[in-house]
Specification:
Elements lengths: L16 E4 L3 H11 L3 E6 L3 E5 L7 E4 L19 E5 L2 H13 L6 E4 L3 E7 L5 E7 L22 H11 L1
Parallel strand pairs: 1-4, 5-8
Antiparallel strand pairs: 2-3, 3-4, 6-7, 7-8
Amino acid sequence: MTDSDYTAPAGARVGHVHLQVSDLDRALVFYQGLLGFELNQRFGEQAAFLGAGGYHHHIGLNTWNSLGGPPARTHGAGLFHAAFLYPTRADLGRVVARLADAGYPLSGSADHGVSEAVYLSDPDGNGVELYWDRPRAEWPRDAQGGIAMHTRALDMRGLLAAGQAAG
């Protein structure tokens, strides 16, 4: 039975994503080495927990049921992608530049009106979105005042320039 009048509180959010990976060291090269998340705790070759800004963990990685296994499946039920929110456009531009410098392939990018995003897969084929949200006052709205997201081409040059200008 569900209460149709219940809505999650405004402060509710996704706290972390925990992924099964086939090779912990390879996953750490991606999440720590490329994306820059800090390794907070590691349990041998079985698990690791990474975060940003001193948070205990935004990302959990484990090999409990997946060591040496095949990549994540792309068809059927399961995780489409994990999305990592960067505080500013410049922060997103910097991490995208790191990926480009490393030759790491992106699978797509988009301007959604409310946000700008890039898409890629981690070494195990898990979908990853890196994005920043525009200020709410800039979000596109429909005639009734509702959010009017869209998918348009991302200004990648502008994004990278924002990252470069910020240092």
